[in-house]
Amino acid sequence: MEKYLSQLNEAQLEPTIQKDGPMIIIAGAGSGKTRVLTYRIAYLMNQGVDAFNILSLTFTNKAAKEMKERISTIVGSGEAKNLWMGTFHSVFAKILRFEGHHLGFPSNFTIYDTQDSQRLMGSIIKEMGLDKDIYKTKQIYSRISSYKNSLITVKAYFNNPELKEADAMARRPKMGEIYKEYVDRCFKAGCMDFDDLLLRTNELLTRFPAVLAQYQDRFRYILVDEYQDTNHSQYLIVRALADRFQNICVVGDDAQSIYAFRGANISNILNFQKDYDGVKLFRLEQNYRSTKNIVHAANSVIEHNETKLDKVVWTANDEGGKVKVHRSLTDGDEGRYVASTIFETKMNNQLQNSDFAILYRTNAQSRAMEDALRKREIPYRIYGGLSFYQRKEIKDVTAYLRLILNPSDEEALKRVINYPPRGIGQTTIDKLMVAANGYGKTIFELLENLDKVDIKINAGTKRKLSDFTTLIKSYQVMNETANAFDLAEHVTKTSGLMREFNKDGTPEGITRLENVEELLNGIKDFVEGQMELADASDSLAEFLEDVALATDLDADKGDVDHVALMTIHLAKGLEFNHVFIVGLEEDLFPSAMSMNTRSELEEERRLFYVALTRAEKQAYLTYALSRYRWGKLVDSEPSRFIEEIDDEFLEILTPTEERRINPMLSADIFGDSKSKIVNPNKIRYKPAKKPVLKKGGTAAKKEPEKFQVTTPKNLKPVAKTTAIDASNTNTNLFDSELAVGSLVKHIRFGNGEVLKIEGAGADVKAEINFQHGGVKKLLLRFAKLEVIG
DNA sequence: TTACGTACATTTTTT
DNA sequence: ATGTACGTAA
User: Is Isomerase included in the keywords of this UniProt record (predicted)?
Assistant: First the structure.
């Protein structure tokens, strides 16, 4: 242990060996907080605290796993095994498996992900006959989610006239009824959504003092990482559990609070000292990660926030290169710049792909980056977005597994009852739902007793229904004895899922099959891992829980060396040698949705701070003058965040005077006449500021259509093998290029022959006979075709 | 009941 | 540009 403690600096050592009592560690970016947390846990165990009595809550499962491994190397894996470590959601899901029965939940409750929850919400809104344009599923879902995170139960909602008033004002007077129905339906289905895992834990600890006492006694030492991103619900759980021993250690950085949108409450960390008596405060301010230029640049940005704790992050590291700022014309150019910079930097400095990360504000931005990386043949991996487990084919398989485990799971049932198609249509399902509600039974219970129930379904359909029921029941029987892998494999083969996936031979269909394959392999790995743990008691249930709570970051596939692409949110806690922060444009970053209030803008700024502090050696900030959004080319201007960085830490690679690649590009050719036109209609909130980084001209902004016609791409001679750019709106091109009889290549359908060309202007369509997929009619404006002859 | 076409909305971030 | 929703034809 001594050996390890000697690796810490003084500021880190103090909190590490502070054993008892409440404490808070304000840890600046890159200051080694994970190391402190890890060593502190090891130290506690070294001091005789039983691993069994330590609860450590992390932000991702991956962080938990890594921490556990590091602790194992210090104290031995036998000891570390008993540590309870994980995200709030996964830890309390486990506790609810044991204790949920107090609340009327079965121990095999299933977990609804966002998709399931929203589907359920959607069908409730539909059943209640409400206007779906006013009651927008997503909005209703997030509203209810925020109620739950603030511990506003259905009852509390109805007792709160202000809330009802607010929803009525928003023309949604039925909000409470929807909320109630949603909660009832989840309960009846034996399901919990993400928020329930916390809310129900609170309910459990509040209503059952004996249970609370039991866990208080168990968790004598509690550590919470990323405390700045806890919501009210999590805050109360921690308070309740720590109340008895008061050995609570929270770690966080107010400057990195970026989850307010999902209920995180920054005042949890700001007010921690008021919540407990005799709180010891520690600060970690030395950054070991980044160069001086990066640290100082980040500091100068965060200075613009009003709400923050007093803290000065500094570093003894090298000066390093200045933060590079690059402007491109379009998002496509931005991608090409990033890709070629990675390519060259890698060559010149003998770096690996994994030394680079591309961070963006929204998932949609990944596409331009992907295209460019692919052209350069740079391996990359996209983290987040549609995660593996959310893909349709994977959800189809897991829905069967969920249903086996918990036949009440309504969303799982609705998903598979007619998939693969077995002649059970919407009408039948609707009838079943109505009847189920009438009898107060679940749909599956109804299915088991079809002949005893008064329901108007014809005999043929009834047979189909009972076949389905028998099928599921046979799986349930198998689940008694078989392990999760054998069962899953059996299900995919015998349910017709495999046949269904096999049916289409398109490249996407093959990808789907591969995904299912991968899922099965994953289950196999999981089962084998469980065997080693000796108790393969309920492998299916545990696997499904892992699936529901997994983040993309957690998945650790033995990947080849790759560049990482992810949103900034996902990048929290990670570090990379070289970091590209792309799309630094007003309305994108900061997001247009987040500029209404000061606090929203400050969160965006913290997000930028997080992004910048991911970089160890070199940070790049890039933006484009126009980019595709909603399928249209939209002009944009540089983000205020660039301007907020002190000039001395920046290197502007593309100085204000625009490089004119092509004289036609200069918007100035339209002259002063246009720039004198003032558009009085353009009113837009903008704090007083003068962009330091001006763009070439303003005419383009006002007359985008005219401007586009002169885009240089259109003027370039198009070689035979040139891919037709989707951004190209000059349709004359197609006439000269494509003719009946031309041979073309499509990224998805392969080679094909043009049979017919029709339409005019932007709507030119071609009918093409493809090798794969047969005859298709494609809009040339969108289809990326390569002319090959 | 299903399959297919057209219309439509949709982009902020996630456990 | 992509996914979903709804209507119509088979």
Answer: yes
Residue A619's DSSP bridge partners are: A579
Spatial distance from the CA of A487 to the C1' of C2 (Å): 35
Q: What is the DSSP letter of A326?
A: E
- A94 and A226 together in one domain: yes
User: Would you say residue A481 has pLDDT above 60?
Assistant: yes
- What phi, psi does A359 have (nearest 5°)? -115, 140
Please state whether strand C lies within 7 Å of residue A364 at its CB atom. no
pLDDT digits (tens, 9 = 90+) for A384-402: 777 778 888 888 889 999 9
Mean pLDDT of A425-444: 85
Q: Is 90 exceeded by the pLDDT of residue A607?
A: yes
**Pair of tokens at residue A43:** 């130290």
Which residues of A does the annotation mark as catalytic? 33-34, 225-226, 256, 614
pLDDT for A687 equals: 35
Residue A29 annotated as lining a ligand binding site: yes
CB A740 within 8 A of CB A767: no
Does residue A131 share a domain with residue A41?
A: no
Q: Is the CB of A127 under 7 A from strand C?
A: no
- The 10s digit of each residue's pLDDT in A668-677 is 333 333 333 3
Residues A402 and A539 in one domain: yes
Task: Please list the residues that pair with A250 across neighbouring strands.
Answer: A24, A224
Distance A459 CA to B12 C1' (A): 50
CA of A504 to C1' of B3 (A): 15
pLDDT confidence of residue A290: 96
Range of the domain at A56: 1-103+197-284
Residue A258 CA to nucleotide B13 C1', Å? 8
A62 is in an annotated binding site: no
CB A198 within 8 A of CB A237: yes
Select from A652, A674, A706 the last residue of a domain: A652
In a domain, A212, yes or no: yes
Answer whether any strand C atom is within 7 A of the Cβ of A726: yes
| Contact residues for A548 (Cβ-Cβ < 8 A; gap 6+) | A110, A111, A113, A389
Q: In the complex, which nucleotide's C1' lies nearest to the CA atom of residue A119?
A: C4
Mean residue pLDDT across chain A: 81
DSSP H stretches of helix in A560-659: 568-571, 598-612, 640-644
For residue A605, being part of any structural domain is answered with yes
> Are A754 and A707 within 8 A, CB to CB?
no
Task: Determine if strand B comes within 7 Å of the CB of A311.
Answer: no
Residue with minimal CA–C1' distance to C1 is: A631
Query: Are the C-beta atoms of residues A545 and A111 closer than 8 Å to each other?
Result: yes
Q: Are residues A89 and A115 in the same domain?
A: no
pLDDT band at A434 (very low <50, low <70, confident <90, very high): confident
State yes or no: pLDDT of A93 exceeds 80. Answer: yes
A129 CB inside 7 Å of strand C: no
Same domain for A76 and A217: yes
With a cut of 50, say whether residue A62 has pLDDT above it: yes
Predicted pLDDT of residue A775: 57
A543 and A408 part of one domain: yes
Show which of A634, A652, A670 is a domain's final residue. Answer: A652
CA A402 from centre of chain: 23
Question: pTM for this one?
Answer: 0.79
CB of A245 within 7 Å of some strand C atom: no
3-class SS at A503? helix
Nucleotide with smallest C1' distance to residue A590 CA: B12
- For residue A360, being part of any structural domain is answered with yes
What tokens appear for A15 in the block? 């909190």
pLDDT tens digits, one per residue of A117-147: 888 888 888 888 887 778 888 888 888 998 9
- Tens-digit pLDDT profile for residues A574-603: 999 999 999 999 989 998 888 888 888 999
Ranking A149-153, A477-481, A724-728 by mean pLDDT, the lowest is A724-728
Amino acid A43: pLDDT: 94
Which nucleotides of chain C have an atom under 7 angstroms from any protein CB? 1-2, 5-6
Report the distance from CA of residue A291 to the C1' of nucleotide C2 in Å, as an integer.
Answer: 41
Residue A210 sits in the same domain as residue A90? yes
If asked whether residues A166 and A25 sit together in one domain, one would say: no
Please give residues of chain A from 254 to 283 whose alpha-adjacent beta carbon (CB) lies under 7 Å from any atom of strand B.
Answer: 261-262
Strand partners, A166: none
CATH code for the domain of A578:
3.40.50.300
Flag whether A709 is in a domain.
no
Residue A136, domain CATH: 1.10.10
